[in-house]
Amino acid sequence: MENSIQVFAPATVANVVCGFDVLGFAVNEPGDEVIMRVTDKPSITISKITGDNGRLPLDPAKNTVSVSVQHYLQSINRTDIGLDIELHKKMPIGSGLGSSSASTVAGLFAAKTLLGDETDAAKLLPFAMKGEEMACGHGHADNVAPALMGGFVLIRSYEPLDVIRLPHPKGLYCAIVFPDVDVPTREARQIIRDKIYMKDAVTQWGNIAGLVSGLFMNDIGLIGRSMKDILVEPVRSMLIPDFYKMREIAMEMGAVSFGISGSGPSVFAFTKSEETAKQIAQKLQKNLAAAGIGSNTYVSDINNQGPKVIG
């Protein structure tokens, strides 16, 4: 067994506009890194966290990475092993890009690989969801599933858990803009309506089915037409500065679609080329800067690999 390993896990875009809590995909950047070492004492420790400005706990009972790894070790009867974790946050916390998911997945994949466990990475999903439950009070899978499995995923059911990896067109690129504003995930969930009209539900079902059909058919036009949300976006968009102006800019510049990533404040646009994605990201960043708001931008195609060993 190796004594140490370094793993990268990718950021993710959850919901994908119309698929609240049931759709998500992984991107190539940003992401988080975990360095894990085998130790003599049978316990899990966190020796170092960087890039979090002191916001994340070093206490292994309170950190999503260590809690998830502990659940995994218990499931395979390996609580006899000692593991030390270094977490390097390479992506912003509270961005709507699955920050806690990336950390948790990197930790779980590192533990699985160190132990020589050759079961499918998707089997780690229930343990990753334990981390999500700790991070935001709700153990959803639309970030952790694509981070673990790579690509585009559909969570068909939570009870029992049934996750399907979907195909997607090769020429699909994603421009992501993360405005420097605070939208905590717990609060963003609390403002969502708990009752909806049947006619709105029917519209949303049609859009989700259309998006999944477009992915299978390699029909980018159908994907774009289907990425409309009348249930969650109208409420959450109020928390994001200049949301509708940014959408207007992106669509005028040739975006296939535009929407909120996860609970926000990050927004994303699908495009048919990397160059268009870069141009949209730059233009949206300038628009926010004119309003006195800083931002980070990322451009990527869809990451099909998920976590990977980098050292």
Low-confidence stretches at least 5 residues in length (pLDDT < 50)?
none
Count of strand segments: 11
Q: H/E series, N to C?
A: EEEHEHHHEEEHHHHHEEHEE
Write down the overall mean pLDDT. 93
Could you tell me the CATH topology label of the largest domain. Answer: Ribosomal Protein S5, domain 2
Beta-strand portion reads: 25-35%
Q: In the CATH classification, which architecture of the largest domain applies?
A: 2-Layer Sandwich
Oligomer: single chain
Topology:
Elements: E1 4-14, E2 23-39, E3 44-50, H1 64-75, E4 82-88, H2 99-114, H3 125-136, H4 144-149, E5 152-158, E6 161-166, E7 173-179, H5 185-190, H6 198-217, H7 220-226, H8 233-236, H9 243-252, E8 257-260, E9 267-271, H10 274-290, E10 295-301, E11 308-309
